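Notebook p. 47: complex prediction with S-adenosylmethionine.
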Amino acid sequence: MSDRNTHVLDLYTRHPISAQQIIAKVRALRGHLENLTPEDLYPHDQDHYGGLSANDALAERASIHRDEHVADFCAGLGGPARYFSRRFGAEVTGIDLNPARVHGAAELTALVGLESRVRVIEGDVTRTGLPSAAFDVVVSQEALLHVPDKAAAVAEASRLLRPGGRLAFTDWIVHRPLSPHEAETMWHGLGAQTLQSVEGYRELLSVAGFALLSVEDLTDEWGVILEQRFAMYRELRQETLRQGLPAGNEEFYAA
Ligand SMILES: C[S@@+](CC[C@H](N)C(=O)[O-])C[C@H]1O[C@@H](n2cnc3c(N)ncnc32)[C@H](O)[C@@H]1O
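Predicted complex, structure tokens below:
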């Protein structure tokens, strides 16, 4: 595994959102873990900006239908995967680099009884090992920033899709090249590497054979969400520190 993936792995192993933290929170709220539904987890298991409405926007752009096979690139704890299954009836295979995320996803998915429809496997989205042309849709939420070779990730999505399949994703983009200091801060704190511009993504998608249907730049809306998210992380950090669980590092908060 590359050093760059090792750093990203490490960041998510110490991330303030973890399966243990979610389970502790749900247990504290409900008093027990009996008869949990995916809805009980939604306030806690979505590791991207914009929560469930971002999932709905992505599902709409990807046109996800009942019983379609969806691959979720960088699925994390499986929050979006469970949502796509529960809300749209899809069968979802998530791929995530981090074994703790993969185990956490399995634990949370089993707790809400979706294990026959949702699985998250350990792997790198640039080479998933999944069969070609086996999926109707590939989605990814706010994670390709961590993948150094985005051309390889997009090509892998193309390989997994059946003819006529759809790819929809969100990612952080840059409007100008980052200064070396900015790039270093983003790398050390957030594992963000080779951030693309919209134009860069257009090119990558076209080379991989995709016909581009729409691009949306959410910079203005996300500025507000980012502030809320940062406040939430700071609060979570105090909670996780009190519970003695991994709670992120200083560079994360600086970035
Ligand atoms: C911000 S989280 C997003 C998780 C999920 N998409 C969500 O919205 O809840 C980013 C995830 O990308 C995963 N990741 C990073 N690089 C990866 C790679 N090369 N292949 C697969 N997963 C990767 C991390 O382990 C982490 O779980």
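Notes: The mean pLDDT is 93. The radius of gyration is 18 Å.
Next step: compare against the earlier run before touching the bench.
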